[in-house]
Design goal:
The structure holds two protein chains of two kinds. Chain A is an all-alpha fold. Chain A is 71% helix and 0% strand. Chain A is built from three helices and no strands. Chain B has six helices and no strands. Classes of the chains: A mainly alpha, B mainly alpha.
């Protein structure tokens, strides 16, 4: 498997998408959305931006399966860290109140 | 097998950068990228712990976190986000230039990336100084400048140096936000400084013409590191600067 060279056009497109994402984050952050929608929107945009960077700037889209597995393992451990911690903290008020 | 029977491996026109323990440049490139990715996984977990602390305290003290966040300079934060994204772009172009063998472009892109990285750090320094002036450095980290922000009274004219507490927020919990703010942005800045150092070394060797289409491992994996630091900031920016703006009208 030889190295894949990402074209300049893709780099420019991703760069512009990241700028648009940043602008959207700021605009959305200044609006008053109901409930937790503000943080949900902010994190969704951040995840999309990060995904674009990982797939194209970091070439994961064109990398071997091994790199995919290693990268996904990070997300897996991160999920364990968050889920287990919050299953404790967020349920503490359930008993005594 | 008898040693005498062993035929020395013929490296057909072996590249000077090919290490003897790799079969070929392609294998060496893959191994290098894999190594950097494994390191980045540990980095994700390292920053993950801080993101966890942030999330935990934010759920406990939402009003204090929103008040503290509103005191940060949104413009400087947004400008720095753009600076960092631009630097990631020039970094990607530096790798591309190495891949297609354009040495001059590669050097120009690396210089731009380094300059943008330093710009980011400069803006960060300005922000840190603002926090120092407003006595928002948590605890007693700075001798003679303990955490002691002035709180804006209701009905008094707006003062950007004073802390605007939203209902339910306390100064003590605002301090918690600033511990996390300085820990996270500080660690991020340390990574930026290391990145600038790395890229300076890469720039030196690029200038000497070491990297071309066949061999550019170091450029590529330094790029991976640089993009990773960019990703951390992509999350830090909305989480630190934008979490309570909509509450302040």
């Amino acid at each position: 498997m030889s190295e894949h060279i990402v074209s300049l056009r893709i780099y420019v497109t991703i760069f512009l998408a990241l700028l648009v994402g940043t602008a959207l984050t700021v605009v959305a952050g200044l609006q008053d959305f109901p409930g937790n929608l503000n943080v949900i929107i902010a994190l969704t945009i951040a995840v999309v931006k990060a995904t674009l960077v990982v797939l194209y700037f970091m070439h994961v889209r064109y990398s071997s399966r091994l790199i995919w597995v290693v990268f996904t393992s990070a997300l897996f451990w991160l999920a364990i860290l968050f889920v287990f911690t919050f299953s404790d903290y967020l349920t503490r008020g359930w008993l005594s109140g | 097998m008898n040693l005498a029977d062993a035929v020395p491996i013929e490296h057909e026109a072996s590249h000077p950068a090919l290490q003897h323990h790799f079969e070929n440049l392609e294998q060496q490139r893959e191994a290098g990228a894999l190594g950097m990715w494994v390191f980045l996984v540990t980095e994700i977990m390292f920053f993950g712990g801080m993101f966890l602390a942030y999330t935990l305290y934010r759920t406990q003290y939402p009003a204090a976190f929103a008040s503290a966040s509103n005191h940060l300079d949104l413009t400087l934060g947004a400008v720095n986000t753009v600076v960092l994204i631009l630097s990631s772009f020039t970094m990607a172009l530096a790798v591309y230039s190495a891949q297609v063998g354009k040495r001059t472009n590669q050097i120009i892109c690396l210089v731009f990336t380094i300059v943008l990285g330093l710009t980011f750090l400069g803006v960060k320094a300005v922000e840190y100084r603002d926090k120092y002036v407003d006595s928002l450095i948590p605890g007693k980290l700075i001798p003679g400048r303990p955490f002691k922000p002035e709180v804006q009274e209701h009905g008094t004219p707006y003062d950007k140096h004073k802390l605007h507490l939203l209902p339910g927020a306390t100064v003590k919990n605002v301090e918690m936000f600033y511990w996390i703010y300085f820990a996270m942005t500080g660690m991020h800045a340390v990574h930026m400084i290391i990145g600038v150092g790395l890229l300076s070394v890469i720039l030196f060797f690029a200038w000497r013409g070491r990297y071309g289409p066949e061999y550019h491992n170091p450029v590529e994996i330094s790029g991976l590191y640089w993009h990773f630091v960019d990703i951390i900031w992509i999350f830090l920016f909305p989480l630190l600067y934008l979490l309570g703006r909509h509450l302040e009208h």
